[in-house]
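Can't paste images in this forum, so I'm doing it all in text. The chain is below; anyone willing to post the predicted structure tokens underneath?
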Amino acid sequence: MGGTVTAVSRSATYAFSKPNRSAINLLAGLGVEGDAHAGETIRHQFRMTYEPDLPNLRQVHLMHAELFDELALKGFDVSAGQLGENITTRGVDLLGLPTGTLLHLGGEAVVEVTGLRNPCAKINDFRSGLLGEMFVLEPDSEEFAFKAGVMAVVRHGGPVKPGDSVVIELPPTPHRRLERV
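Text version of the structure:
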């Protein structure tokens, strides 16, 4: 099981979109070197005001390129980094992974999936109507599935670049379904 890194992005400021880079460096326990969201404690701009000492479970944001394909069919032009993700993948069912999954990125870096990205209203500021595409009502349920990628913490640092492999290491069973973080 695995896929490929298609793009990497980072921004030193709290901008909604992150510029693509030729490579990023992951730092164990911190996140993406030089990214505004890197740190041991919460770095989400809004949540820092009322939960500043909680652990940062959102050090790295990963998104599946297949979402961009789906959005294009609905008339939305969105590409890697524009929704604020750090790592864009192809061939990995990120949303279907259980909590605690390890993703081996390239030859050194390892991240642990902590949960789903909770999409915010700023997505509509980026593209009007796009926020509604980040949710889907699950079949035979009254719950929504979130499609805006997953969040992770860095367990082992190292460089990550487009073309790197993504190798999936599932946690021991029983698996826990991803929840919003």
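The two ends are 25 Å apart (CA to CA). Residues 65-73 form the longest helix (9 residues).
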